Amino acid sequence: MNISLELKRLRQLDLEPNLNEKRRPYLSSASGLVQAHGRLYVVSDDEISLGVFPLTMGQPGFLLPIWEGRLPEKKDERKKLKPDLESLVLLDTKMWASGGSLLVIPSGSKPNRQEGALLHFSESGLLQGKPQPIHFSPLYQHLQKQFPDLNIEGATVSGSTFKILQRGNGQSSRNAVINLDFSSVLQGLGSHQQISPDTIISIKHIDLGTLHGVPLGFTDAASPAPNQTWFLAAAEDSESTYHDGQNMGTAIGCLDPNDQLIFMTELPTAIKFEGLLIPRTGDARTFYVVSDADDPELPSELYQGTLPVLDHIRP
C-alpha cells in the first residue's frame, strides 16, 4: 500500500549545558522513545544515560545516568564499550512503583550488550531510586541459536504479549517478532532481574522486502491498541549488526494481531528513524519518531506525523 505521509520537524534534542562535563550539548543516535508523566524519555545507543525532555518544545532536556562512569569520547572506542541501548518500554504496572516503570532494552549484538535496566516512577511522576540492572543474557543466548546475528531493536507491550523485534540487518537478514508472555516477563523482572527463554510464546519471521534496493530491518515498535503493532524499519546498506552503513530511508508499517504485515509505506525523508511513539491517549493517529544519523556530530531530532486510517484493524 503506497500512502504518502507527511512529517513535521518539532525540535532538536538539545541538552542543558553541563559545566562539569565536556560533551556536545545534544543527544545523538536516539533509538527509543516514550512519553510518561508529561515528559519525553529517549534512549540512545551511544549513551549510558537516559535523555529526559519536556513536552514544551523550546526547552532543553537533560541526561539521567543509568550506570556510573563515562564512555570514551572517540567514536571507535565508544562503539566497543557502549551497552547499545535500543529500546524503551513504559510498563504501566504498579508492581514496583505507584507511577509505573521504564524498561531499557539492549540490542544483544555483542556479549557486552546484554544488560538493560529498570527505572521506577514515583506517584508524582518523577524517576526515583537507583536503576536496577536487568539481565537479558538468558533470553538472548537462547535466541542466538536461531539468530546468530541477534540484534533486538524494538519492543512493545500489546495486550498480554510483550513483543521484541529482531532487526535483520546481519548476514542472514531475517526480521522477526518474538512474542513473550507479558505476565511471565514481569515476574522475571521482579524476582530474578532477568528475562528467561521460558517466556517465549512464538517467533514469527517477517518479510519486509526492500527499500531502494536495500533490505528493510526493524528499528522500533509501538502498540496503541492490542489489535495492532506499528513499527519502523530502516534500509541501511550494511551486512553487519556492528558496522553502520549508508541509510536509504525508513518505512513505517503495521502488523495485525497474528503478526501479519497489513500496511507499510516509506517516510518522506532519507533520515534513519529508530524510535517510535504512538500515545495511547488523545489522538491515537498521531505518532512521533526520533532520528539516528550514526554520527556524533549530528544531533537527533523529533518529528511528528499522522497515521493513515486502516479500516480492517479498527477495534
Explain this structure.
With 315 residues, the chain is mainly beta. It is 8% helix and 45% strand. The chain has three helices and 21 strands. It has helices spanning 75-81, 137-143, 182-191; strands at 7-12, 30-36, 39-44, 49-54, 62-65, 85-91, 101-106, 115-121, 127-135, 152-158, 161-166, 175-181, 200-206, 210-211, 214-225, 228-237, 246-255, 261-266, 273-277, 286-291, 301-306. Strands 14-15-16-17-18 form a five-stranded antiparallel β-sheet, with no helix packed on it. The mean pLDDT is 90.
Outline the fold blueprint:
Blueprint: E1 7-12, E2 30-36, E3 39-44, E4 49-54, E5 62-65, H1 75-81, E6 85-91, E7 101-106, E8 115-121, E9 127-135, H2 137-143, E10 152-158, E11 161-166, E12 175-181, H3 182-191, E13 200-206, E14 210-211, E15 214-225, E16 228-237, E17 246-255, E18 261-266, E19 273-277, E20 286-291, E21 301-306
Antiparallel strand pairs: 1-21, 2-3, 3-4, 4-5, 6-7, 7-8, 8-9, 10-11, 11-12, 12-13, 14-15, 15-16, 16-17, 17-18, 19-20, 20-21
What are the salient characteristics of this protein?
21 strands; 8% helix; mainly beta; globular; four-stranded antiparallel beta sheet; 315 residues; five-stranded antiparallel beta sheet; 3 helices; single chain
Helix content: under 10%
* Poorly predicted runs: none
Order of strands across the biggest sheet? 14-15-16-17-18
Largest sheet: 5 strands, antiparallel
- Helix/strand class: mainly beta
In short:
This protein has 315 residues and is mainly beta. It is built from three helices and 21 strands.
